[in-house]
Amino acid sequence: MLGPGQWVLDSGHFPRPATCFTAELFPGPSREGFAEGTAPYGLLLDYVEWAFVERWGYLSTKPVAPLRAAAPLDRAAWDDLVRTSAELRSRLATSASVFERRAWRDDLALWDDRLRPSLLEGHRRLQAVDPYGLDADELLGHLDRCRANLRRAITVHHRFDVTPVLPVGDLLVQARQWADVPAPELLALLHGAGPLAVGATGELNRLAEVLRADASARSTLESPTGTPDEVLAALCSTPGPVGEASAGYVARVGHCSSGIGLDVGEPSLAELPGLLLESVRTAVAGGAPDDTGAEAASRAAEIRRAVPASNRLAFDELLGEARLVHRLRDERALSCDVWANGLMRRAILVAGDRLAAQDRIDDPAHLVESTWAEMRSLLDTGAGPPADELARRARYRSEAMADDLPVLLGDPPRTPVPTEWLDPGAARTEQAFRTYLGAMAGVSEEPDAGPSRSVRGQGVSPGVYVGRARMVGGDGDFGRILRGDVLVTVATSPAFNVVLPLVGAVVTDRGGLLSHAAIVAREYGIPAVVGCGDATAHLADGATVRVDGTSGEVTPL
Q: What is the average pLDDT across 320-332?
């Protein structure tokens, strides 16, 4: 049952029905983390809550408690509410001081100094365990630890949802008041400020460097006869720097989730060796972008000259703070859910292998379709859902379509408190937050004319590219992506970062200027069109398409 409020279909985070395991686990820690993350900024939004209807994800934004309990407000009612609510007054006082105290810097220090190192240590400790060598009781204990690690990772991820938002949102608000600069040009100034490969830019760069210097290893890499598994194994077993760098990269990313990275139903990169190998080949060929930020610095100098002289120091400060914290947008997912989900999946698949060998389930991967209690019971006593029920759940998740789902459920939306009712400091914080969220979202208002006509969206990374459309909608689609394809999907996430160096352009149904697809496409310098609405329905898999990242038009040829 859904609680009060409006619930919106969240096809960006959950483009497919979730596994029972994820639908059960995800809502609690995501809510806890989000609520903890808004408090240091005094936002009027308290948290975002997720719920699952027939395993489809819906989200609902929840304002702070005094606003949740209040009837629709006019200015007089708002003033009365502020006078009578100590919680609301405290929240507004905190919000008013955000930019003066640069609150995000405290969060960044917490992330860099404590939480991220602790998370990575936990991931590495679990990854060092060989679950195949565990007996039944040890495997149950390992599953418990993987689940606790995943729960913590989800909480920490959402604890930092707000941190990279406010400086970038404020840059958009303030700089556009000082200079007539389009938002895409301002956002291009963030180039080079975030990680690109699946949390392993350094490992991939080192591997590419040693492979370029070793002709024999490059010959192995480009072997036309070996399978991807065989080629990767040969590289990892090569004595010296090649073997060390290959093993280091595979160990770092192999158990990261592919897809959106939020569900144990998504295969890990180790299950897609062809994709992993192609990412290495692309890096060796020089496909990875120059992420030094030199081009961004040149653009920043041009825009700075358009800013009035009296505001240039303020512009420099805003840009510096935005670039400082922007990397957390991807880092939190890459260091949290993406790795933790992959480790959880590995443990579940080992348990599934044992149950399949005992003919309790049809396929080891079907175990991800169970709830936590069902999974433990199947392993401990053999009692639980029969094999055909788990198979039915797996079929539903792979075949169900969102076409007929209601986009909105529950109550009409609340009208946000107007920023002009707030004191200047609190108004600045709220405006920065809302501006960023608006730039993340966005669906084209122009309807598509049908499968033979152009699809329109928002051009967020300039350039024109012609290539083969590759639809990525389900768990198994990642492995079909080849170098030069046009990625067409509902939305991307940091788990897509290993794919993006391979593709020539990106097209998404959801998102805006600050969506993940837009940010990373600009980093890689590839055309991107986002917020098309239903590009995944109107473009055919394998069709040749022309993507114009400036005009926002995608045309089947």
A: 92
Closest CA to 468 of 553, 556, 528, 551: 556
Contact 528, 507 (CB under 8 A): yes
Mention every residue, 6+ apart, whose C-beta is less than 8 A from residue 479: 267, 272, 274, 275
- Highest-confidence range of 10-19, 77-86, 326-335, by mean pLDDT? 77-86
Mean pLDDT within 421-434: 97
Tokens, residue 149: 């690690």
Closest CA to 62 of 432, 333, 411: 411
User: Cα–Cα distance between 124 and 184 in angstroms, integer?
Assistant: 38
Q: What domains are defined for the chain?
A: 1-101+407-440 (no CATH), 201-284 (no CATH), 455-556 (3.50.30.10)
Encode pLDDT of 132-158 as tens digits.
Answer: 999 999 999 999 999 999 999 999 999
In this structure, is the dihedral angle defined by the CA atoms of residues 275, 281, 283 and 285, taken in order, positive or negative?
A: negative
Q: What is the pLDDT of residues 200-212, one digit of tens each?
A: 667 888 899 999 9
| Contact (CB, 8 A) for 203 and 288 | no
Cα separation, 473 vs 488, whole angstroms: 9
Q: Tell me if the pTM is above 0.85.
A: yes
**pLDDT value at position 3?**
86
For residue 484, count CB atoms less than 10 angstroms from its CB and return exposed for 0-12, middle for 13-18, buried for 19 or more.
middle
CB atoms within 10 A of CB 69: 10
Q: What are phi and psi of 5, to 5 degrees?
A: 105, 180
For residue 291, pLDDT over 60 is answered with no
481: three-class secondary structure by DSSP? coil
Q: Where are the alpha helices (DSSP H) in 407-534?
A: 424-440, 516-524
Distance CA 83, CA 77 (A): 10
Residue with tokens 């009781």: 137
- Sequence letter at residue 529: V
Sheet with 56-63, side-by-side order of all strands = 45-53, 56-63, 6-9, 408-410
- Read off the pLDDT band of 450 (50, 70, 90): very low
Cβ(534)–Cβ(512) below 8 Å: no
Q: Establish how many alpha carbons lie within 13 A of residue 236's alpha carbon, considering only the half-sphere containing its beta carbon.
A: 16
What pLDDT score was predicted for residue 292?
52
